[in-house]
Amino acid sequence: MIFCAGLGTRFKPWTDKHPKALALVNGKSLLQRNIEYLQSFGIFSVVINVHHFADQVEAAVAEHRGWGSDVLISDERAELLDTGGGLQKAKSFFEEGQPFLTCNADILTNLHIGKLIEFHDQHQPLISFGITERKSSRSLLMDNQHRLCGWRNNTTGEEKIVLPHQPLQPFAYSCVALFDYSVFNLMQGYGLGKKFSLTDLYLALAPDYPVLGYEHSKDHVVDVGKPESVALAETLFL
Fold first, then answer.
1. Across residues 179-205, what is the average pLDDT?
2. Residue 231's CB: how many other CB atoms inside 10 A?
3. Residue 122 CB: number of other CB atoms within 10 A?
4. Are strands 211-215 and 127-132 parallel, antiparallel or unpaired?
5. 28: Cβ contacts below 8 Å, ≥ 6 apart
6. Predicted pLDDT at 165
């Protein structure tokens, strides 16, 4: 699943008239780049959620025939549900009992999904996600086994520790995550149609279930969250 529904408030003025998922990096939209990224690892069945300028996203998918992938639409026009709520709403698109992957349209990375899958198969956690040592406004706090133990807002200093291990190391979240299907059963406490983030979900589950970070600090990760970040992305993703 590629999350495409956000308002993109940091990406104005583009997002005053367009969805951020259709912003261009070297002539290709962020959505196209993520679809092609998944294709490079053999993933051709994709769910996207839509809200902000949803008609434009749907029209682009139709015009380009999904850029060669089978693209299904999870419609959030009525209410934006954030990443966790958006995933829960899209449950019916996933195959029961099968693991699945999520990523964000506005994050570009060359994380090797095959290696993430190998890591997940080896350690058998509930959730595995990419992490790197890079500057970020928020950090996930991991123990020396890269198990999630907490979260920190690096701007305000706010912390939430759910597993009090010491020492804890901060990492930036790469927004590419691999889930065991059973996570849907553990979401039920939020209620269908509720708005919550995947980070909230990770922290809620981490004390009782292994939620692990896969470190790939040598790879590229660019948060194309602001217009000025496009220039950096264009030097790394041709």
1. 92
2. 9
3. 9
4. parallel
5. 36
6. 80
Does residue 125 have a cis peptide bond before it, meaning omega lies within 30 degrees of 0?
Answer: no
d(CA 54, CA 18): 9
What mean pLDDT value characterizes the chain?
A: 96
Report the CATH number at residue 66: 3.90.550.10
Q: Give me the domain span that covers residue 179.
A: 2-236
Structure tokens at 36: 């092609």
Structure token digits, residue 110: 């060359």
Q: Helix or strand or coil: residue 84?
A: helix
- The total number of structural domains in the chain stands at 1
11-36: per-residue pLDDT in tens? Answer: 999 999 999 999 999 999 999 999 99
Whole-prediction pTM: 0.96
Checking if the pLDDT of 191 tops 80, the result is: no
Encoded tokens for 192: 């269908």
Residues contacting residue 91 through CB under 8 Å, at least 6 positions apart:
184
Chain-centroid distance, C-alpha 130: 10
**DSSP label of 95:** P
**Contact 37/75 with Cβ under 8 angstroms?**
no
Cα 83 off chain centre by:
8
DSSP classification of residue 225: -
Residue 59 φ/ψ region, left for φ over 0, alpha for ψ in the -120 to 50 degree band, beta for the rest: alpha
- Residue 230 CB neighbour total at 10 angstroms: 17
Q: Percent of the chain at pLDDT above 70?
A: 100
pLDDT at 192 over 80: no
